[in-house]
Amino acid sequence: MGGEHSTVYVIVDPNFGERLVSLPEGVPVWIVDTPVNSQVAHRLWKERPRASQHAGITTYRVPADTSPEENLINELGTIDLHHGPHSAGSPYMQLEVIGTSLSERIESELAEYRFREFHLTPDGFRSVRRELP
């Protein structure tokens, strides 16, 4: 098993919309379910049949009054359940987060999953783990 699905994208930007098209096809993407994001996700589901249950776009609902940081933290357990060491396939070793900046709280939460390496990006951050929990 190679690292073909070793990166998971998490989009907490409620207005990411059409930029979803530019992400690599076939990689797992979790995106906050807002009208603009959902419209593009539904179109891409029709245009791009999913390669497997572990690849493709997943939308998830969040309460309207929560911050992007909170949305990310609240979804980490579910993402790890689907893509982590206890799921089928190669576990993810990198998390690409778009729509929130890195905070001490996010670092602390990700450390629970052994993500301890962080790199800032123009739209958020990338986190890498070198070992599995």
Report on this structure.
The chain is of the alpha/beta class. It has one domain (7-128): Rossmann fold (3-Layer(aba) Sandwich). Helix content is 28%, strand content 23%. It has helices at 35-47, 68-83, 104-111, and strands at 7-11, 28-32, 56-60, 94-98, 117-121, 124-128. The chain has a 6-stranded mixed β-sheet with strand order 3-2-1-4-6-5, sandwiched between helices. The chain is globular. It starts with 6 loop residues before the first strand and ends in a 5-residue tail after the last strand.
Summarize the model shown.
With 133 residues, the protein is α/β, with parallel strands linked by helices. It has helices spanning 35-47, 68-83, 104-111; strands spanning 7-11, 28-32, 56-60, 94-98, 117-121, 124-128.
Count of domains: 1
What is the CATH architecture annotation?
3-Layer(aba) Sandwich
Biggest beta-sheet profile: 6 strands, mixed
- Counted beta strands: 6
The structure class reads alpha/beta
Rg computed from alpha carbons, rounded to a whole number of angstroms: 14 Å
Low-confidence stretches: none
3D shape: globular
Q: Gap between N and C termini, in Å?
A: 18 Å
Set out the fold topology.
Elements: E1 7-11, E2 28-32, H1 35-47, E3 56-60, H2 68-83, E4 94-98, H3 104-111, E5 117-121, E6 124-128
Parallel strand pairs: 1-2, 1-4, 2-3
Antiparallel strand pairs: 4-6, 5-6
